[in-house]
Here is the input.
Amino acid sequence: MIGRSVKFKAEPCIQCVKIGALNSDGIVLVYNSCMSIDSPIDGHIKKIRATVNNARRLSAVSKTNLINTDEEEAFDRLTRLASKLLKTPISFITILEKDRDFVKSHFGLPAPLAESREITAHPSFCQHIVDSGEPLVLEDARDSKIFRHFPSVQHLGIVAYAGVPLTTQQGVTLGTCCVVDFKKRIWTEDELEILVELSKSVLTEIELRQAASTLDEFVLIAAHEIKTPLTSLKVYTQLLQHKLTINSA
Here is the structure.
């Protein structure tokens, strides 16, 4: 992927936002999303909420066991690296719940967001990514008919944004890995590729924790069975006798 150029499907205009996606060849495509920009903002928000609140997605989020957990070096290292490599003042990893974006890790977030580690002012860029399932790349959010109205732009002064979805192997988008800047940025292909690779590392960390949790449950069950083998054998014998009784009836 390194060294490939960004390809445009259309020339960007001031009324359009650039949304980046990786095609099957791993090339970053940046195209104008005029259809999204021209749609009424109320309808746009309703669509986002429907996707974010999808029962299957929320169930997958719950199974990560990451919500309300403490900051962890494994994730913090990735956000620090994101800001260092992309030279941005802020980077963060979010897991989206029904009513908030939980910030699992961050670098440079100002107070009080740094303390609360949650974003409740909606709609958010992260919600948009969860809805589309694709990377979102904004050089200047103030030029967008939709994104310039987002709270992060109006109240936090965010201008440039680049975010990548955290999508599981099952196709469920849990949240985002993203960077922001307070000035206009021309994001390069190399920068977007770095962000994609970092998002893969985030997903690996999430999957490792889920696997470890499953293993812990197995070990607990196995330990219980070892401690009480006679009880387990007795229950199995009773079930077998019951089945034989039914079959002979």
Notes: The first strand starts at residue 7 and ends at 8.
